[in-house]
Amino acid sequence: MSYAVSAALQSAVYQHLQADPALDALVGSAIYDAMPEGALPSLYVSLGPETATDRSDVTGSGSLHRFTVSVVSAAAGFALAKQAAGAITDALDMPLPLTRGTLVYLNFDRAVARRTGPAGSLRQIDLRFRARVDDI
User: Fold this and answer.
1) Can you list the alpha helix ranges (DSSP code H) found in the chain?
2) 1 pLDDT band (50/70/90 cuts)?
3) Each residue of 96-136: pLDDT tens digit?
4) What is the domain extent for residue 71?
5) Does residue 93 form part of some domain?
6) Residue 69 in 3-state DSSP?
7) What φ, ψ does residue 76 adopt, rounded to 5°?
8) Overall domain count for the chain
9) CATH classification of the domain holding 115
10) DSSP-assigned letters across all residues of 35-61
11) DSSP state letter for 92
């Protein structure tokens, strides 16, 4: 197994989300790999946790990455957050070029929508994806 492709995968996901016009119309540039200091916008996207497991075989080194992309909204309901979540799944439903390795597949796995923040004032949708990469 090689974890070396992880940075290339994360970079490709981040850049692709930032370049997506539908997501841009909803959140603008509020897509974060690292949370900024200070006040946050009322709707934003954040790259979250990742786990990786070995998927190497006789042809070479590979890994399966499970990662989360979160949508957080201060709106009263889930509608706006769900629109952004839909834009994210649409944006990631295509091949992404990596600077290292090869993306074999990238699939939406599941989503969890919940209230969070002080007194449930925020809406958060955690989208989980699975990506299989080869480091050839």
Assistant:
1) 6-19, 21-27, 79-91
2) low
3) 999 999 999 999 999 999 999 999 899 999 999 999 999 97
4) 6-135
5) yes
6) strand
7) -65, -35
8) 1
9) 3.30.2000.30
10) PPSSPPPSEEEEEEEEEEEE--BTTBE
11) T
